[in-house]
Write a structure and sequence with these properties.
The complex is a heterodimer of chains A (about 230) and B (about 45).
Chain A: H1 2-20, E1 23-24, E2 33-34, H2 46-73, H3 76-107, H4 116-137, H5 141-169, E3 180-181, E4 184-185, H6 189-227
Parallel strand pairs in A: 1-2
Antiparallel strand pairs in A: 3-4
Helix pairs in contact in A: 1-6, 2-3, 2-5, 2-6, 3-4, 3-5, 3-6, 4-5
Chain B: H1 2-7, H2 9-43
Classes of the chains: A mainly alpha (about 230), B mainly alpha (about 45).
Chain lengths: ~230, ~45
Amino acid sequence: MAFKLILGAWLSIILIVGFSFPITTNPTNWYDLPFVPGLEDKARILFFHVPMAWVTTLAFIISLIYGIKYLTKKNLDYDIISSSSAGLGMMFCVLATVTGSLWAKFTWGSFWNWDPRETSIFVLLLIYGAYFALRSAIDGDEKKATLSAVYAIIAGITVPFFIFIMPRIVEGLHPNEAIVSQGKISMNKTMLVIFLSSLAAFTGLFFWILNLKVRAARLESKYYLKGE
Amino acid sequence: MFEFFSQNALYIVMSIVLIGWVGIFWYLLRLDKKMNKIEKMFKE
């Protein structure tokens, strides 16, 4: 319980600090955030959009790991964790896409520009959309679990490629320099602390929701077993 | 009124997002409590 209350307060503080700390061209006070050319006040999206994308990656990797575990142990509980994690990953992926798209409207002038990052996240959404289509099309728990575990592994392998590699191979509009410029972190200390705290808080939030989702799915499967 | 909104847009957005987060957080806490209750019922 304490963990949850701390998480709630922690994310609230990040929200307040992330929105209210001033962005200045010459940060002198401890609470000043640096001015990123071309981003101005819109740089604040960094504290929310990037953690969402990070949680998406984490969720899909967890789905892959539990997919492998299911195939080796044939325990249906692993399938529950794998599919719940993929579902949450999909939710955070949609949130990252929507926040990024809103930001793009105000920075690039249009909601969708087919930038390499936008294209890669779109392909990811399609890949995991197909995962849920596959799950809903198969009857029988074990067959469904086996096929979706195989699919989760194949889909999970593509995640690092689409999120980390592809946008770096092809040149695009996405401002990566706000975080890392020429191999060095370009944020000041305050910005870095808020950013890392936000990453940790979103990760905590993800594990909390995953825990709830897995427990609900376990109860559901127990209920059906009792019913039979 | 319009001047107030345009000058404090950032804080207004912050308040709306904060209210949204508090709502989600409260919902998750309640869900967690309810889940604990149901799990106890299944154990008995």
